[in-house]
Amino acid sequence: MASYSTSDFKKGLKVQIEGEPYNMIEMEFMKPGKGQAVYRAKLKNLLNGRILDRSYRSGESLESADVEERTVQYLYQDGTYYHFMDPDSFEQHEIPKEGVGDAGKWLVEEMRCDVVFWNGRGITVTPPAHVELTVTYTEPGAKGNSTGNVQKPATMSNGVEINVPVFINVDDLLRIDTRTGEYIERVTKS
Amino acid sequence: MDGGPDVAMLRRRAELLAAARAFFSARGVLEVDTPILGDGLVVEAHLDAIPCQVRASAAGPTAERYLLTSPEGPMKRLLAAGSGPIYQIAHAFRDGESGRRHSLEFSLLEWYRPGFDDHALMDEVEALVRALVPSIAAAPFARRTYREIFVDGAGIDPWATTVREVVAACVRLGVPVPAGLADGTLDDALDVLLIGDLEPRLGFSVPLFVHDYPASQAALAQVRVDDATGDAVAARFELYIDGVELANGYHELGDAAEQRRRFAEANRVREASDRPALPIDEALLEALERGLPPCAGVALGVDRLLMVATGADDIRDVRLRLDA
Fold first, then answer.
1. Averages of pLDDT over each 10 residues, chain B, 324 residues
2. How would you classify residue B174: left for phi > 0, otherwise alpha for psi between -120 and 50, otherwise beta?
3. N or C: where does chain A have the smaller number of CB atoms within 10 Å of the terminal CB?
C-alpha cells in the first residue's frame, strides 16, 4: 500500500489510520526557533465524521486511502440500502443506511448526489446544497401578517418539517438548503 | 494574489527596508553584504541546508556548497576582523521548511553589536520594530523568562521537570503528542508544548521578549549561571508579536572550543535521527580563535515582520510566490 510522508502532507489528502479512511482537512507546518518541526493535522473520519487532531514529526508517514468522489444518481432505497447509479457507466452502487445518515431525507429519485467511494465501496452521500420540494401541509397564513420574520412550520413532500414564512401555502414549491435545513425561497406558487 | 505580485506589498516591503537602513545608518551600524553560498555551516540539529554543486570554471571539478541557513558565520568573521557594529539584509535558505509562517527562502535582518549584552540588544530590537512598524502599541515590550512562560502557561518548570510530566501537560492542555515523544529528549517535549499551546498566546497585548533559555538550547549563545536559581541559562532571547516568533538573539559565544563541541553535538543528534552530519564552518571557528569582540547579535524575520505590519496570515502573501 502506498504511503505519504510528512513532506506530502497537505489539505485534502486521503489517508488510512487504524483501518479507517480519513480526509486531512487542515495541515500546519510548525517549528520552534531551534527545535524539531511538527506537522499538525486535523483529520476527518470519512465513515463517522469524527475529527482527529494529530501531530507528526519529519520522517513519519501515513498509509494512503483509495478514496474518490463521484457524482451519481439516486434510484431508490429498500430499508437497508440506498441504491445509486453512475449516469455514465450505468453501474449500480448500494450504500448502507448508516452511511447515508441524515442525507437520506433529502434524496428524491433521479437526484444527482456526490458519493465518496473507499476501495470502490460507497461510504457517504452528500445531497445537492439546494433542493426543491413541495409543501404537503401547513396552516393557512394569518392575513395582514405577511411581512417581517414571523415563521410557521410546514411539512414537505419528503416528510421533513421546516420553518417557512407565513405567506407559504400547501402545494408551493420551495428551495431549501440541505446543509442547514432552512427555507431559502419560494420557486413557484400553488 | 495568485494573479501576480502585489504591488502595494512590494511598496510596504521597500518602505520597511528603507526604514531599517535609516535606523542603522543613524546609529553608526555598517551595512554588509556577505556570501550566501558557503562550504561550511553553523550546524544546528534541526536546520537543514540546501546543498548545491558548483564549479569554479566550466570544465573544472564540482564541489559541494550550501545555501547558508543564515549569514551568521560570515558576519562573525567580519566582527573578528574588526568591522565594528554591522547589519545585513540577507536571504537565508532552510530545506524542508514550508508553511504558513515558513518559506524555503526568506529574508533576514541580522545585526551584531560589540559591547552589547542580550538585554541591551533587546532594547535596540524594540526601538527598531517601533521605527519599522509605527502601528505597534506604545506600551513598552514585555520581558519574561522561558521558565516563567512554562510555569504560568502549563505549570511546568523546565529546569525541574521530566519528559513524562511535559507529555502529561500536553495531554491536559489538548496538545496532540507525536509518536515517540515520551521516549525522546526533554527539549523535544518542551518544544511540542511550546508550539502547541504556549507560543500561540505570546505577545498579544504587547510584544514579548522571552529570554534565558535552557543551556541545552543555547545554540550560539553564552551560557551563564542564573544568580537567583543557580541554574545554567542561555543568554538567548526571542521576540513574539501576536503569537508569531519574529527574532532570535544571543549574547554571542566567543569560545571556539565550546562552539566546536556544540556543532559536534548537533551533528551527533542529526546522525542519531538518520539525517546527514553537515560540514562545520571552520572559518568561523578560526575567527573565534583569533578573537570575537564581546557582542550580542540578532536575526529578525523580515517577512514575518511584514506579516505583523500588514495583518497577513500567510507568509506567501508577503513574498512573490515562487515556492511550490
1. 73 96 98 97 96 91 95 98 98 94 96 98 98 92 98 97 98 96 95 96 96 95 92 97 96 97 96 93 97 98 96 90 54
2. left
3. N
Q: How far is CA A163 from CA A156, A182, B88, B186, in A?
A: 10, 7, 65, 57
Q: CA B79 to CA A43: how far, in whole Å?
A: 50
Q: Contact, A125 vs A114, CB < 8 A?
A: yes
Band (pLDDT 50/70/90 cuts) for residue A143 is low
3-state secondary structure of B46: coil
Q: How far is B126 from chain A (nearest CA, A)?
A: 19
Question: What are the CA-CA distances from residue B75 to residues B37, B52, B114, B283 (Å)?
Answer: 13, 22, 12, 11
The full DSSP string for B164-212 is HHHHHHHHHTTPPPPTTGGGS-HHHHHHHHIIIIIGGGTTSSS-EEEEE
- Closest Cα of chain A to B8: distance in Å? 27
Length of chain B: 324
Cα-trace Rg, chain B: 20
Mention every residue, 6+ apart, whose C-beta is less than 8 A from residue A64. Answer: A1, A2, A3, A4, A14, A15, A16
Distance CA A107, CA B204 (A): 49
Q: Rounded to 5 degrees, what angle do the CA atoms B16, B123, B32 make? A: 50
Q: Do B98 and A34 touch (CB under 8 A)?
A: no
Residues of A whose CB is below 8 A from B176: 40, 53-55
CB B285 within 8 A of CB B260: yes
Task: For residue A56, list chain B residues with Cβ-Cβ distance below 8 A.
Answer: 178-179
The values of phi and psi at residue B173, to 5°, are -95, 5
Report the DSSP beta bridge partners of residue B193.
none
Q: Is A8 on the interface with B (CB under 8 A)?
A: no
pLDDT tens per residue, range A148-183: 678 899 999 988 999 999 999 999 999 999 999 999
Residue B230 φ/ψ region, left for φ over 0, alpha for ψ in the -120 to 50 degree band, beta for the rest: left
- Please judge whether A55 and B44 are an interchain contact, meaning their C-beta atoms are less than 8 angstroms apart: no
Identify from B101, B170, B192, B244 which residue to disrupt to test chain A contact, counting A C-beta atoms within 10 A and taking the largest count.
Answer: B192
pLDDT for residue B273: 87
ipTM: 0.90
In this complex, do A28 and B99 lie within 8 Å of one another by their Cβ atoms? yes
